[in-house]
Amino acid sequence: MISEKYDAVSPVIGVMLMLVVTIIIAAFVSAFAGDAFGNTETAPSAAIDVKMISDGGDHKDQYVMLIEHHGGSSIPTSDLRIVGYYTPPASTKKTMQRGEVTSSTKAVRGMIIHDEEISSVKIPYLNDVACGTPGDDETNFGEYTFSSGDVMSTGGSKGTSTVLGFDISTPEKRNEYGFVRGSAVDVEIIHLPSQKSLFSGRVIVQ
């Protein structure tokens, strides 16, 4: 009789243990999912346009990328990643080139902007004399907030090389990659906290 009682209790204990384990696992999964989805940020909404000109600079001989904010959310540039892709003509026998800029990208040294040599500037800088000149902390990429009406600039061919991932600072270097007026560059601007794209498009060098 005693044996029969224990035999009846054993399955009940087993079921209860399984329930406890299931509840613990469910609580763990729920907590993990809450962390994973609760920390996701909403991407800001902004109208951004990107241009690339081949006649920039004081002497109209520089390849300059301009990123314009036409309205919407103000965005700290420390939250941005700018990526450029360029596929050289087949005749150059070069593979696709990729460049990337974030707030941690090294500053460009020795750029000539407005006929002055800038010892160090983080590209793209804020093109607003009211905030400072290129190379000032207030205009260095990663230090300012990109707001409606603002324009970011690479300043010249040397600065644009940082975004493209290859050297276009001289005519010889540009010819090596077949990079000329009319070339196409694919540009993407990513909001890092949300990992959402704020701009993605093909930019033709004007």
Specify Rg, calculated over alpha carbons. 27 Å
Major sheet description: 4 strands, antiparallel
- The residue-averaged pLDDT reads 85
Strand order of the largest sheet: 1-2-10-8
| Strand count | 12
How far do the termini sit from each other?
A: 96 Å
Q: Into which percent range does the helicity of residues fall?
A: 25-40%
- Structural class computed from helices and strand pairing: alpha+beta
Proportion of strand residues: 25-35%
Flag low-confidence runs.
33-38
* Helix-strand topology string: HEEEEEEEEEEHHEE
Count of helical stretches: 3
User: Which oligomeric state applies?
Assistant: single chain
Large-scale geometry: elongated
Question: SSE layout and pairings?
Answer:
Layout (H helix, E strand, L loop, with lengths): L1 H37 L7 E11 L5 E11 L2 E2 L3 E7 L10 E5 L9 E3 L2 E3 L6 E2 L18 E2 L4 E3 L3 H8 L6 H7 L6 E8 L4 E9 L2
Antiparallel strand pairs: 1-2, 2-10, 3-9, 4-5, 4-11, 6-7, 8-10, 11-12
Report on the structure:
The chain is built from three helices and twelve strands. A hairpin with a 2-residue loop joins strand 6 and strand 7. The radius of gyration is 27 Å and the shape is elongated. It has 206 residues and is of the alpha+beta class. The strands form four sheets. A four-stranded antiparallel β-sheet has the order 1-2-10-8, with helices on one face. It has a four-stranded antiparallel β-sheet with strand order 5-4-11-12, covered by helices on one side. The chain has a two-stranded antiparallel sheet with strand order 3-9. Mean pLDDT is 85; it is low at 33-38. The longest helix has 37 residues, at 2-38. Helices cover 25% and strands 32% of the residues.
